[in-house]
Amino acid sequence: MLYRLENLKRWHGTRTVLNIDKLEIGPNRIYTLIGPNGAGKTSLLKILAFLDKPSSGSLQFLEKKVLFEEKQLYALRRQVVLLDQNPIMFTGSVWKNVEFGLRVRKVPSKACRERVEEALELVGMESFADYNALGLSGGETKRVALARALVLEPKVLLCDEPTANVDNENQEIILKIIKRINHERKGSIIFSTHYLSQGQRLADHTLLLQNGALSDMASENIHRVTVLDRQEDGCLCQLTGQLFLKFPLQFFPDSVKVAKLYIDPTCIVLNPKATNPAEGNLLSGHITDLSQDSGQIRVIIDVGVKLAVVLSVEQYRLEKPGIGDKAPIFIPHSGTRCTRIGHLNSDQSV
Amino acid sequence: MDLLFDSVQSALLLFMAFDAELIEIVIVSLKVSFAATLIASILGIPGGFIIAYSIFPGKRLVLTCLNTLLALPTVVIGLLVYSFISRRGILGPLELLYTQKAIVIGQVILIIPVIMTLTIAAISRIDKRYRMTALTLGASRTQMALVILKEARYGILAAVIAAFGRVIAEVGISMMLGGNAKGFTRTMTTAMALEYDKGEFVLAVALGITLMTFAFGINMLFHLLQGRTGNDAV
Question: Are residues A4 and A62 in contact, defined by beta-carbon separation less than 8 angstroms?
């Protein structure tokens, strides 16, 4: 096992930013960390990169317990590299930046030159070698930072939102490099992203983070709901925007006024034949987007808020949804979960 | 206006004549000022770096003390050092009083807080990502510190220049610990004070102009260096 985390917690003051009961990460795989802002992705990556110490719990790397002592950390950091979300370049040329890690490792000049050339070529920045690194664009900076990390041939490459704040062209280049590195060098890659589709397209495993805890909820189809009215037959709730839904009373105990609602995209029924209002909510909207992900079809339907619906290829062929089509959907209560806002663990679901 | 005009004329004449006494005074001034700045930089820059990058109880108190020491009068430093190096002081046998070394000791005490506080300010302004990036790329603590120092070099250089300006212009320490001995411990400022006492205002102002010329030259050098490396730093 590459990493093993047990009861790992990280807090800043009174705020818990990370709370992981158990997590095992295997070698030579691509993992994606998915979660909204503030989910704890960066905090987890910093701990995995040995740049931050957990407040409690244990972390093992290659079956050895990490004691977070300076001498041990120095050796561990030489096997793992973290690519920052907004990487910063050292003063100097692109070449000087890329060779930094090799210089501190005292790699001989000839080998150093060859490896820097290879890394710059890999990210398509070889013609920028003599440029001032501080004068690069956002996308170019990310690519040079990736070369600066890859030149070290780390056992684990951790990337914090590698495609954030870059244009589509650079996004594609970066994603292709990540895939290629894993394929050719058999190195482990853990990267965080906001985008479920991007993560699932690239990764062998997906880790979902919600409020610092691992979750089985995807980060899409999560909406804030306000309980407007309680009646005998259920609670009337309002989602962000002007969407009203009715849920059974047991979804919301008396004290809960605001909660997070998660609708499983695989449970939503497109073009339902027969529906029972007691078992879910029937809505109508328009299809705004269609895409293919790992053998599944994602349909985005605007029903006042945008909801993702995941169909199998067979279902897609049967329904033949098209962009702009009017689409009734049925959201069964069984595919819906509510979580109190601010709570961490799934066992605190309401 | 006559005083200023005569002083500039007098200063130019002294320069052009390579006046031996003036050159001697300038050399002594530069020697003690450079020595004091060098020693204070060797002690103050790493000290400032450690304080800026460490988290320890009482850090705020240390910063407050350092800021307070910026206002330390030269006369107080003169008296303090005097009490140690005078014949009756514990360092009396070293016979440091009225030597250039005594001036250097006093001036180091004067400018260490200047260099430390300005270094702390320069380091604190450096983006925290530099530290993280250096460490994740495999740098040791020392290598990481060198990266930070490199990125903060202009701020640190400004601290050193400010400290040099402080010592070359100070008079209290040089007078009390150096004694203004002609040819040994007479600096530009003590010579100016002496000429003023003698009523030789023209020579005093001429020495002042000389001092300002040196200060200007050093600052120009700094700005040229900053401009050249700052514009196309590769």
Answer: no
In this structure, what token pair is assigned to residue A4? 């093993």
B147 to chain A: which residues are within 8 Å by CB?
A: 90
CA distance B133 to chain A (A): 8
Q: Mutation test of the interface with chain B: which of A51, A73, A91, choosing the one with the most B Cβ atoms within 10 A?
A: A91
Which of A77, A90, A91 is the closest to B138 by Cβ? Answer: A77
Considering only alpha carbons, which residue of chain A is nearest residue B129? A88
Q: Give yes or no for B139 touching A (CB within 8 A).
A: yes
pLDDT at site A100: 97
**Strand duo A205-210 + A306-312: pairing:** unpaired
**ipTM exceeding 0.90?**
no
Q: Among A162, A78, A50, A176, which Cα is nearest to A124's? A: A176
CB contact under 8 A, A51 and B140: no
Q: Are strands A336-340 and A258-263 parallel, antiparallel or unpaired?
A: antiparallel
How remote is the C-alpha of A308 from its chain's centroid? 17
* CA separation, residue B204 to residues B4, B195, B214 (Å): 11, 5, 16
Picking from B40, B83, B69, the residue whose alpha carbon sits closest to that of residue B177 is B83
φ and ψ of A164, to 5 deg: -75, 145
Instruction: Calculate the alpha carbon distances from A192 to A32, A87, A344, B226 in Å.
Output: 5, 14, 19, 39
- Kindly indicate whether the domain formed by B27-190 is annotated with CATH number 3.40.50.150: no
Q: Which domains does chain A have, with CATH numbers?
A: 3-215 (3.40.50.300), 222-348 (2.40.50.100)
**pLDDT band at A277, cuts 50/70/90?**
confident
Cα–Cα distance, A271 to A147 (Å, whole number): 48
Return the domain boundaries, chain B. 27-190
pTM recorded for the entire structure: 0.74
Assess whether pLDDT exceeds 60 at residue A144. yes
